[in-house]
User: Which sequence fits this backbone?
């Protein structure tokens, strides 16, 4: 199985900060990497698919990049509603796998 | 509006069975693959399994942790996906989410674009 490892596990940041979350796959995958945001008690919400495609309705401050084994989610200017947990997921090879999550907390 | 509503969760004893339903609306259900993902209390997301649409054989894929115990099926006439869970263990306690999988026909990949709100399954004696 492909293991997805996110770093950091948590990050403290202030409104307006640039935040970068990294996701590393245990082996090279194609660009079928997605990012989800989850707020407490809610279902996850798709932000980015195919590494860098922004899901409809998602603010442009979210962006994704990467290739091979290393992928990144960037929030260019953190907003109050962005404090949440973020997960990466690969859908290249079954079983599909998620990263362990990165919690973005208020500094 | 696209909607997915899970139902059928509850308290069940270890070793017993439970079937979850995912009732959908607002899109052509038969054109989409569907997935199930679970989240144990205080933990991260775990992919459970997937069913292709009939045009791609309606075949299924499962996580190793549930393979041989869980069965995913679909009824396109009712726009409902099912997750039949057998031989339940305490480790299966989680919120179970139903997800619509969109397919990129140019690059041949799936991505989970719409999630239900989830239903809670508690396995305990």
Assistant:
């Amino acid at each position: 199985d492909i293991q997805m490892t996110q770093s950091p596990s948590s990050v403290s940041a202030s409104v307006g900060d640039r935040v970068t979350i990294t996701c590393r796959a245990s082996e090279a995958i194609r660009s079928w990497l997605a990012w989800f945001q989850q707020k407490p008690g809610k279902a996850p919400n798709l932000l980015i698919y195919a590494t860098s495609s922004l899901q409809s309705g998602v603010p442009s401050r979210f962006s994704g990049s990467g290739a091979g084994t290393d992928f990144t989610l960037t929030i260019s200017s953190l907003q109050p509603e962005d404090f949440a947990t973020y997960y990466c997921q690969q859908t290249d090879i079954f079983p599909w796998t998620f990263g362990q999550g990165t919690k973005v907390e208020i500094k | 509006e696209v909607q997915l509503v899970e139902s059928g969760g509850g308290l069940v004893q270890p070793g017993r069975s439970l079937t979850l339903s995912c009732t959908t609306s607002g899109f052509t259900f038969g054109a989409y693959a569907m997935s199930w993902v679970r989240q144990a209390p205080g933990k991260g997301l775990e992919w459970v399994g997937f069913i292709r649409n009939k045009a791609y054989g309606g075949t299924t894929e499962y996580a190793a942790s549930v393979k041989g115990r869980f069965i995913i099926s679909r009824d396109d006439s009712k726009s409902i996906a099912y997750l039949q869970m057998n031989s339940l263990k305490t480790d299966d306690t989680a919120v179970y989410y139903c997800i619509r999988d969109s397919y990129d026909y140019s690059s041949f990949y799936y991505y989970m674009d719409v999630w239900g709100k989830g239903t809670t399954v508690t396995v305990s004696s």
Chain B has a mean pLDDT of 97. The CA atoms of residues 15 and 88 of chain B lie 5 Å apart. Chain B touches chain A at residues 35, 37, 44-47, 50, 61-64, 97, 104, 107, 109-118 (CB under 8 Å). The first strand of chain B starts at residue 3 and ends at 7.
